[in-house]
Write a structure and sequence with these properties.
The protein is an alpha+beta fold. The protein has a single domain (7-249), classed as Creatine Amidinohydrolase. It has four helices and 15 strands. The protein has helices at 7-28, 37-50, 122-139, 148-161; strands at 54-55, 72-76, 79-81, 95-104, 107-116, 165-166, 172-174, 181-185, 202-205, 208-210, 216-218, 225-227, 233-235, 238-241, 248-249. The mean pLDDT is 97.
């Protein structure tokens, strides 16, 4: 079921999205070699709680998985998404992907960025740049009367034209009243297909891009998704509102 949000819904979603975006920027400012990912998680959780909101990921379960144990996801290099913060120490030259979900007043916001830890190679820099640009290219297709896969095709075409691959086992999604809603928003597809986009829909668009092949696998912890070939991956995400004219990015600080 695809939810069309009212103005009241959107106002609450916008608030959750703002906190998610601010949390990401706070974490980004603390990313450097030598920092443990659990320390970034603590910073994020403290900030989310200080805004009278909750970390949407903490305690979340899907498909019979164990409850997610942390407030954010911290995925490093070949970890695509859902990396669990812990004692791992960030190393110079790594890519850190940070995913944040916020729940407040009964509504969700969801956003992610990838950050260079210290100095990264030109290849990794290009991977992050292409992934972020693909996000905004996809967002531009999120207009009334377009189709979901117009977003998907735009992301796929740009990523693959730059020599990278889009993850196919994971996708973006509707978001707002629930953390994951219909429709699914894959990062590959045929233009002109998929659900029709309507005013009042809120979507989390999130390219996950691999330097190597698109294949992924699940780690031993039951949550972390890794590239099958061990090559690095990057991840960027915004929650957006489809309105008259251009889409509105809600996850801005």
């Amino acid at each position: 079921m695809i939810y069309i949000k009212t103005k009241k819904d959107i106002d609450f979603i916008r608030e959750s999205c703002r906190i998610a975006a601010e949390t990401l920027q706070l974490i980004k400012g603390n990313v450097k070699p030598g920092v443990k990912t659990k320390n970034l998680n603590r910073i994020a959780e403290d900030y989310i709680l200080s805004n009278n909101s909750k970390a949407a990921f903490k305690g979340y379960s899907q498909g019979g998985s164990i409850n997610y144990p942390a407030s954010i996801c911290t995925s490093i290099d070949d970890e695509v998404v859902h990396g669990i913060p812990g004692d791992r120490v960030l190393q110079d030259g790594e890519i850190l992907s940070i995913d944040v979900g916020v729940f407040k007043n009964g509504y969700f916001g969801d956003a992610a960025i990838s950050v260079a830890v210290g100095y990264v190679s030109e290849e990794k820099r290009k991977l992050m740049d292409v992934t972020e640009r693909a996000l905004y290219i996809g967002i531009q297709e999120a207009k009334v009367n377009n189709r979901v896969h117009d977003i998907s095709a735009a992301v796929q075409d740009f990523v693959e034209s730059n020599g990278f691959s889009v993850v196919r086992d994971l996708c973006g999604h509707g978001v707002g009243k629930y953390l994951h809603e219909d429709p699914s928003v894959p990062n590959f597809g045929k233009k002109g297909t998929g659900a029709k986009l309507k005013k009042g829909m809120t979507l989390a668009i999130e390219p996950m891009v691999n330097m190597g092949k698109f294949n992924v696998k699940t780690g031993m912890d039951g949550w972390t998704i890794l590239t099958s070939d061990g090559m690095p991956s990057a991840h960027f995400e915004h929650t957006i509102l489809i309105s008259n004219g251009n889409p509105e990015i809600l996850t801005v600080s």
